[in-house]
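Key result, reporting period 2: structure in, sequence out.
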Protein backbone atom coordinates (compact mmCIF):
# COMPACT_ATOMS: atom_id res chain seq x y z
CA UNK A 1 0.00 0.00 0.00
CA UNK A 2 1.43 3.39 -1.00
CA UNK A 3 1.59 6.34 1.36
CA UNK A 4 -0.35 8.43 -1.16
CA UNK A 5 -3.28 5.99 -1.10
CA UNK A 6 -3.32 5.91 2.70
CA UNK A 7 -3.27 9.68 3.13
CA UNK A 8 -5.74 10.08 0.28
CA UNK A 9 -8.27 7.89 2.08
CA UNK A 10 -7.59 9.70 5.34
CA UNK A 11 -8.43 12.97 3.56
CA UNK A 12 -11.64 11.46 2.14
CA UNK A 13 -12.54 10.26 5.64
CA UNK A 14 -11.83 13.68 7.14
CA UNK A 15 -14.02 15.37 4.52
CA UNK A 16 -16.88 12.93 5.11
CA UNK A 17 -16.33 13.41 8.83
CA UNK A 18 -16.66 17.17 8.38
CA UNK A 19 -20.11 16.71 6.84
CA UNK A 20 -21.04 14.16 9.49
CA UNK A 21 -19.99 16.61 12.21
CA UNK A 22 -22.09 19.47 10.82
CA UNK A 23 -25.21 17.34 10.45
CA UNK A 24 -24.71 15.54 13.76
CA UNK A 25 -24.16 18.84 15.55
CA UNK A 26 -27.44 20.20 14.21
CA UNK A 27 -29.16 16.93 15.07
CA UNK A 28 -27.81 17.02 18.63
CA UNK A 29 -28.84 20.66 19.11
CA UNK A 30 -32.40 19.94 18.00
CA UNK A 31 -32.72 16.84 20.17
CA UNK A 32 -30.90 18.30 23.17
CA UNK A 33 -32.85 21.56 23.21
CA UNK A 34 -36.21 20.54 21.75
CA UNK A 35 -36.41 16.78 22.33
CA UNK A 36 -37.16 16.12 18.64
CA UNK A 37 -35.46 13.29 16.75
CA UNK A 38 -35.12 15.15 13.45
CA UNK A 39 -35.03 12.46 10.79
CA UNK A 40 -35.41 15.25 8.19
CA UNK A 41 -31.90 16.57 8.93
CA UNK A 42 -30.56 15.03 5.71
CA UNK A 43 -33.35 16.77 3.79
CA UNK A 44 -32.17 20.18 5.00
CA UNK A 45 -28.68 19.17 3.85
CA UNK A 46 -30.21 18.63 0.40
CA UNK A 47 -32.14 21.92 0.59
CA UNK A 48 -28.89 23.76 1.33
CA UNK A 49 -27.19 22.17 -1.67
CA UNK A 50 -30.13 22.95 -3.96
CA UNK A 51 -30.31 26.47 -2.53
CA UNK A 52 -26.73 27.14 -3.63
CA UNK A 53 -27.34 25.50 -7.01
CA UNK A 54 -30.54 27.50 -7.65
CA UNK A 55 -28.94 30.78 -6.62
CA UNK A 56 -26.21 30.13 -9.19
CA UNK A 57 -28.34 28.86 -12.08
CA UNK A 58 -31.50 30.97 -11.63
CA UNK A 59 -30.14 34.21 -10.17
CA UNK A 60 -26.49 34.23 -11.22
CA UNK A 61 -25.26 34.33 -7.61
CA UNK A 62 -22.01 32.39 -7.25
CA UNK A 63 -20.67 30.06 -4.61
CA UNK A 64 -19.86 32.71 -2.01
CA UNK A 65 -23.41 34.07 -2.07
CA UNK A 66 -24.68 30.50 -1.92
CA UNK A 67 -22.53 29.80 1.12
CA UNK A 68 -24.11 32.80 2.84
CA UNK A 69 -27.73 32.54 1.69
CA UNK A 70 -28.43 28.81 1.27
CA UNK A 71 -28.02 27.95 4.99
CA UNK A 72 -30.32 30.90 5.77
CA UNK A 73 -32.89 29.50 3.32
CA UNK A 74 -32.67 26.07 4.97
CA UNK A 75 -32.96 27.69 8.40
CA UNK A 76 -36.02 29.76 7.41
CA UNK A 77 -37.74 26.69 5.95
CA UNK A 78 -36.93 24.79 9.14
CA UNK A 79 -38.27 27.56 11.39
CA UNK A 80 -41.51 27.74 9.38
CA UNK A 81 -41.98 23.98 9.75
CA UNK A 82 -41.15 24.16 13.46
CA UNK A 83 -43.67 26.94 14.02
CA UNK A 84 -46.50 25.28 12.13
CA UNK A 85 -45.97 21.53 12.73
CA UNK A 86 -43.05 20.44 14.90
CA UNK A 87 -43.88 22.64 17.90
CA UNK A 88 -47.03 20.54 18.37
CA UNK A 89 -44.82 17.51 19.18
CA UNK A 90 -42.91 18.92 22.16
CA UNK A 91 -45.16 17.53 24.86
CA UNK A 92 -45.62 14.14 23.19
CA UNK A 93 -43.43 11.05 23.16
CA UNK A 94 -40.26 11.23 21.02
CA UNK A 95 -41.69 8.72 18.56
CA UNK A 96 -44.27 11.26 17.33
CA UNK A 97 -41.58 13.80 16.45
CA UNK A 98 -39.60 11.07 14.70
CA UNK A 99 -42.62 10.01 12.63
CA UNK A 100 -43.50 13.61 11.75
CA UNK A 101 -39.98 14.49 10.60
CA UNK A 102 -39.78 11.22 8.66
CA UNK A 103 -42.99 12.19 6.87
CA UNK A 104 -41.59 15.66 6.16
CA UNK A 105 -38.42 14.10 4.77
CA UNK A 106 -40.37 11.87 2.37
CA UNK A 107 -42.68 14.72 1.29
CA UNK A 108 -39.89 17.25 0.63
CA UNK A 109 -37.67 14.69 -1.07
CA UNK A 110 -40.57 13.50 -3.25
CA UNK A 111 -41.36 17.09 -4.24
CA UNK A 112 -37.78 17.74 -5.32
CA UNK A 113 -37.66 14.45 -7.23
CA UNK A 114 -40.88 15.41 -9.06
CA UNK A 115 -39.44 18.72 -10.24
CA UNK A 116 -35.74 17.85 -10.66
CA UNK A 117 -35.60 14.05 -11.07
CA UNK A 118 -32.76 12.17 -9.37
CA UNK A 119 -29.94 12.89 -11.79
CA UNK A 120 -27.07 14.74 -10.06
CA UNK A 121 -26.39 18.32 -11.10
CA UNK A 122 -22.89 19.81 -11.08
CA UNK A 123 -22.11 22.69 -8.77
CA UNK A 124 -18.72 24.13 -9.72
CA UNK A 125 -15.87 24.85 -7.36
CA UNK A 126 -15.26 28.63 -7.19
CA UNK A 127 -12.16 29.75 -9.13
CA UNK A 128 -10.46 30.93 -5.92
CA UNK A 129 -10.51 27.38 -4.53
CA UNK A 130 -9.52 25.45 -7.63
CA UNK A 131 -6.20 23.63 -7.78
CA UNK A 132 -4.30 22.34 -4.81
CA UNK A 133 -1.03 21.82 -3.01
CA UNK A 134 1.58 19.14 -3.64
CA UNK A 135 2.65 18.03 -0.15
CA UNK A 136 5.04 15.41 -1.46
CA UNK A 137 3.29 12.44 0.11
CA UNK A 138 -0.11 13.50 -1.34
CA UNK A 139 -1.93 16.14 -3.38
CA UNK A 140 -4.24 18.32 -1.27
CA UNK A 141 -7.03 20.02 -3.24
CA UNK A 142 -7.72 23.55 -2.02
CA UNK A 143 -11.46 23.06 -1.93
CA UNK A 144 -11.27 19.97 0.28
CA UNK A 145 -9.01 21.78 2.72
CA UNK A 146 -11.53 24.64 2.71
CA UNK A 147 -14.39 22.26 3.55
CA UNK A 148 -12.56 20.89 6.59
CA UNK A 149 -11.61 24.40 7.78
CA UNK A 150 -15.15 25.80 7.45
CA UNK A 151 -16.71 22.75 9.10
CA UNK A 152 -14.37 22.90 12.10
CA UNK A 153 -14.86 26.66 12.44
CA UNK A 154 -18.65 26.46 12.48
CA UNK A 155 -18.75 23.37 14.70
CA UNK A 156 -16.49 24.90 17.35
CA UNK A 157 -18.17 28.30 17.03
CA UNK A 158 -21.63 26.79 17.51
CA UNK A 159 -20.43 24.75 20.48
CA UNK A 160 -19.01 27.92 22.05
CA UNK A 161 -22.26 29.87 21.54
CA UNK A 162 -24.43 27.08 22.97
CA UNK A 163 -22.20 26.25 25.94
CA UNK A 164 -20.47 29.52 26.84
CA UNK A 165 -22.77 32.45 26.02
CA UNK A 166 -26.02 33.90 27.36
CA UNK A 167 -27.82 32.85 24.17
CA UNK A 168 -26.95 29.23 24.84
CA UNK A 169 -27.89 29.53 28.50
CA UNK A 170 -31.28 30.97 27.55
CA UNK A 171 -31.84 28.16 25.05
CA UNK A 172 -31.08 25.50 27.65
CA UNK A 173 -33.22 27.27 30.26
CA UNK A 174 -36.13 27.50 27.83
CA UNK A 175 -36.17 23.72 27.42
CA UNK A 176 -35.43 22.75 31.01
CA UNK A 177 -37.81 25.19 32.75
CA UNK A 178 -39.92 27.17 30.25
CA UNK A 179 -42.24 28.68 32.88
CA UNK A 180 -39.36 30.16 34.88
CA UNK A 181 -37.71 31.38 31.69
CA UNK A 182 -40.91 33.19 30.68
CA UNK A 183 -40.95 34.84 34.12
CA UNK A 184 -37.70 36.60 33.15
CA UNK A 185 -39.39 38.08 30.08
CA UNK A 186 -37.86 35.70 27.54
CA UNK A 187 -39.98 34.65 24.55
CA UNK A 188 -39.63 30.88 24.88
CA UNK A 189 -41.44 29.82 21.66
CA UNK A 190 -39.34 32.23 19.60
CA UNK A 191 -36.18 30.93 21.26
CA UNK A 192 -37.07 27.31 20.48
CA UNK A 193 -37.86 28.23 16.88
CA UNK A 194 -34.48 29.94 16.65
CA UNK A 195 -32.75 26.84 18.08
CA UNK A 196 -34.40 24.61 15.49
CA UNK A 197 -33.41 27.05 12.75
CA UNK A 198 -29.76 26.93 13.86
CA UNK A 199 -29.79 23.12 13.84
CA UNK A 200 -31.13 22.82 10.30
CA UNK A 201 -29.04 25.75 8.99
CA UNK A 202 -25.92 23.76 9.92
CA UNK A 203 -27.21 20.93 7.72
CA UNK A 204 -27.86 23.45 4.95
CA UNK A 205 -24.29 24.73 5.26
CA UNK A 206 -23.04 21.16 4.90
CA UNK A 207 -25.11 20.79 1.73
CA UNK A 208 -23.58 23.87 0.11
CA UNK A 209 -20.08 22.67 0.99
CA UNK A 210 -20.84 19.19 -0.36
CA UNK A 211 -22.30 20.36 -3.69
CA UNK A 212 -19.00 20.88 -5.56
CA UNK A 213 -17.68 17.51 -4.30
CA UNK A 214 -20.67 15.18 -4.65
CA UNK A 215 -22.93 17.19 -7.03
CA UNK A 216 -26.52 18.14 -6.15
CA UNK A 217 -29.38 15.64 -6.11
CA UNK A 218 -32.76 15.30 -4.34
CA UNK A 219 -31.64 11.98 -2.84
CA UNK A 220 -28.24 13.15 -1.57
CA UNK A 221 -29.35 13.36 2.09
CA UNK A 222 -31.65 10.34 2.25
CA UNK A 223 -29.16 7.72 3.39
CA UNK A 224 -26.89 10.17 5.18
CA UNK A 225 -29.34 10.73 8.03
CA UNK A 226 -29.04 7.07 9.10
CA UNK A 227 -25.27 7.49 9.50
CA UNK A 228 -25.74 10.82 11.32
CA UNK A 229 -28.22 9.25 13.72
CA UNK A 230 -25.71 6.48 14.50
CA UNK A 231 -23.01 9.09 15.11
CA UNK A 232 -25.20 11.05 17.51
CA UNK A 233 -26.04 7.84 19.38
CA UNK A 234 -22.33 7.01 19.71
CA UNK A 235 -21.43 10.52 20.86
CA UNK A 236 -24.40 10.90 23.20
CA UNK A 237 -27.83 12.14 22.12
CA UNK A 238 -27.60 15.41 24.05
CA UNK A 239 -23.86 16.02 23.76
CA UNK A 240 -23.03 18.81 21.33
CA UNK A 241 -19.26 18.41 21.61
CA UNK A 242 -19.69 14.63 21.42
CA UNK A 243 -21.49 14.97 18.06
CA UNK A 244 -18.61 17.00 16.60
CA UNK A 245 -15.78 14.78 17.88
CA UNK A 246 -17.57 11.55 17.00
CA UNK A 247 -18.55 12.77 13.54
CA UNK A 248 -14.97 13.66 12.64
CA UNK A 249 -13.48 10.55 14.26
CA UNK A 250 -15.86 8.08 12.66
CA UNK A 251 -15.42 9.74 9.28
CA UNK A 252 -11.65 9.20 9.51
CA UNK A 253 -12.19 5.64 10.76
CA UNK A 254 -14.48 4.97 7.80
CA UNK A 255 -11.75 6.24 5.45
CA UNK A 256 -9.14 3.99 7.06
CA UNK A 257 -11.46 1.01 6.79
CA UNK A 258 -11.68 1.57 3.03
CA UNK A 259 -7.92 1.10 2.86
CA UNK A 260 -7.71 -2.15 4.81
CA UNK A 261 -11.15 -3.70 4.29
CA UNK A 262 -13.21 -1.80 1.73
CA UNK A 263 -16.24 -4.09 2.07
CA UNK A 264 -16.66 -3.12 5.71
CA UNK A 265 -16.43 0.67 5.26
CA UNK A 266 -20.20 1.14 5.17
CA UNK A 267 -20.69 -0.98 8.30
CA UNK A 268 -17.94 0.28 10.59
CA UNK A 269 -19.98 3.15 12.06
CA UNK A 270 -22.85 0.83 12.93
CA UNK A 271 -20.49 -1.74 14.45
CA UNK A 272 -19.06 1.02 16.65
CA UNK A 273 -22.60 2.08 17.59
CA UNK A 274 -23.46 -1.49 18.60
CA UNK A 275 -20.33 -1.78 20.78
CA UNK A 276 -20.91 1.61 22.44
CA UNK A 277 -24.55 0.81 23.19
CA UNK A 278 -23.47 -2.46 24.82
CA UNK A 279 -20.81 -0.78 26.97
CA UNK A 280 -22.22 2.71 27.57
CA UNK A 281 -25.85 3.17 26.40
CA UNK A 282 -25.76 6.94 27.01
CA UNK A 283 -22.97 7.34 24.44
CA UNK A 284 -19.29 8.18 24.79
CA UNK A 285 -19.95 11.78 25.87
CA UNK A 286 -23.46 11.34 27.23
CA UNK A 287 -24.42 11.28 30.88
CA UNK A 288 -26.27 8.41 32.49
CA UNK A 289 -29.60 9.41 34.01
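The corresponding designed sequence is given below.
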Amino acid sequence: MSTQVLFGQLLVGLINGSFYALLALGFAIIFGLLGIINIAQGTFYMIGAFGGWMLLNYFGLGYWWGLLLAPLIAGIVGMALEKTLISRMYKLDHIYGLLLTYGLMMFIMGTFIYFFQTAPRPYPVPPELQGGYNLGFMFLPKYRAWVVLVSLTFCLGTWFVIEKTSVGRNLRAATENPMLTRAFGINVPALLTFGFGIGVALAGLGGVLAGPIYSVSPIMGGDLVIVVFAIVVVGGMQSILGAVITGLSLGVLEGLTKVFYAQGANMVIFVIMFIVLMVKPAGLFGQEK
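The two ends are 46 Å apart (CA to CA). The chain has a mean pLDDT of 89. This case is discussed further under Risks and Mitigation.
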